[in-house]
Amino acid sequence: MIRTPLRPLARILEARRKGENPDAIERENIRLRHEDMRDRARRRAEGRLLVLAALFFAGFVTVGGKMAVLAQSEPAEPRVGGAGAQILAQRADIVDRHGRVLATNLDTHSLYAQPHLMVDPERAADGLARIFPDLDRERLLRDFTGPRKFLWIRRTLSPEQQQAVHDIGEPGLLFGPREMRLYPNGRLAAHVLGGAGFGREGVHAAEVVGVAGIEKQLDERLRDPARAHEPLMLSLDLGVQAAMERVLAGGMKIMNAKGAAGIIMDARTGEVLAMASLPDFDPNKRPALPTAGDPDDSPLFNRAVQGVYELGSTFKVFTLAQALEEGLVTPGTVIDTRSPMQWGKFRIRDFRNYGPELSVEKVLVKSSNVGTARIALLIGAERQRAFLDALGIIEPSPLEIAEASGSRALLPARWSDLSTMTISYGHGLSTSPMHLVAAYATIVNGGRLVTPTLLRDPARQPGPRVISEATSAAMRDMMRKVVREGTASLAEVPGYAVGGKTGTADKPNARGGGYHKDKVIASFAGMFPAHDPKYVLIVTLDEPVETSGSEPRRTAGWTAAPVAAEVIRRTAPLLGLRPEIEPAETAAISPASH
């Protein structure tokens, strides 16, 4: 830096020439120099203060950010084998065919304790026992005062419970965010949905996994992160499901039945629009699996799929359809129906004496066991089994719920001629209502195989042909006459042209062997409208007894048929079907001989 002289010679000489005091020049220069020095010192101090302030600000931001992160995080209990594994908590919603929610997720909190952080363990135990009566106060106190560093208190909390715990004011009681599965319709479609529970758990999240029903069967699809925001659309119609469940519950009560099941299915696509099993349960509070007693005593038992029963005379439809298809008979063929029919040491009887002979059509309308058995002998055991297999009755149902995989038909150890005859009218072979309703759809829809499904699929293609259009039309005509003139007259619903078949089968005695004399499975399987079937249904009652008359009546015509009629009466308008005048009968169609 070049310093300016305090007494510049040129200015001194100039001042002396003018008679001025040269010392004034020096004093002025000294003043200016001091002011410059003060300005430089001030700028240097201000720069240092600015740098120091920036350093302090950065330090405070760093410390504050770290404190915020620590305040929002919760310590997780160590888990063996799961360290570092991410818990996927998201799960896709489940909706019905119209987009109405059947299952969704709810944000909630869990409650856990870190005893080493507690101030007053005794007060905390007292407060928790008061909020949650099912908790043991003494056990809580032992845990809080013992060596444990972490313990779960509740997996889920309601907002009211969370506030009550918060009011205890104990720093060792902590909350963890999580999602839980919510079924907003309660018991509705409980056996279809099944339910969900928690898998791997941490304080930050819990893994929601399916434990039954479609939640378990399609668990991977519902947990797929890439499809978490894409609802799973079912074929169910929530309104139809609700109506069916209400009618079944009322029918079960009126008919004094132990249980009931019902299914409504699209006759052409196999889409299940309603499936109910009673008694049922609330999937939000799924009960524990039974450890004793019969499986069907539990509300968790799905009678529509897991229930494997002898379904009685509903099987006569298959026998007659096969005989027509193979050209063995026509609807007008006369069959020997003299009862009883002797076969070795066994006798086959009809419920009533229908005379020495009936046409094939009347065999179905009157529900003659003897007539059906004679037709079955024309078919033979091998061809009968092959036909039932082609209808999908023998193999497990492919329905998309976990319980369907075990619903395999119970077959005779040896498929003899006697077995052929008894199976022809629904005894000696046990299968589920789901198998039966899908097979009925195949029979009445023009003969195309129907595979049941719970998934909405508008582009679903018809299956391979099982019977001809002509055979299907003939069966529809005969099934319509069963309702108009035969054993299922109480299933008639004016305006909807119901067709179908009743079936009453004695229940096997699992403990004593043989069959119960006063316990039956009563079923009605049918279609509507009969001239152009859109839907098929089945209603099954377990141990019904109709007591309005002088004597108790257990047959399906008195029990299952009227309940099925009420199901159709309630659900047909919801399905978009309007009552209409039934078209005039067409001439009987006889299948051509092969």
Looking at this protein, list some descriptive labels.
alpha+beta; Beta-lactamase; elongated; Penicillin-binding protein 2a (Domain 2); five-stranded antiparallel beta sheet; 17 helices
Notes on the protein architecture:
- The structure is a single chain.
- With 594 residues, the chain is α+β, with helices and mostly antiparallel strands.
- It folds into two domains: 94-233, Penicillin-binding protein 2a (Domain 2) (Alpha-Beta Complex), CATH 3.90.1310; 239-283 and 302-571, DD-peptidase/beta-lactamase superfamily (Beta-lactamase), CATH 3.40.710.
- The chain is built from 17 helices and 16 strands.
- Helix 9 runs antiparallel to helix 17.
- The model is unreliable at 77-85 (pLDDT under 50).
In short:
This protein is an alpha+beta fold and 594 residues long. It is 35% helix and 18% strand.
What percentage of amino acids are in beta strands? Answer: 15-25%
CATH architecture of the largest domain: 3-Layer(aba) Sandwich
CATH class type of the largest domain: Alpha Beta
Count of distinct structural domains: 2
Distance between the termini: 123 Å
Put simply, the count of helices is 17
* Largest β-sheet summary: 5 strands, mixed
Average the pLDDT over all residues and give the rounded result.
88
Low-confidence runs: 77-85
CATH topological fold name of the largest domain = Beta-lactamase
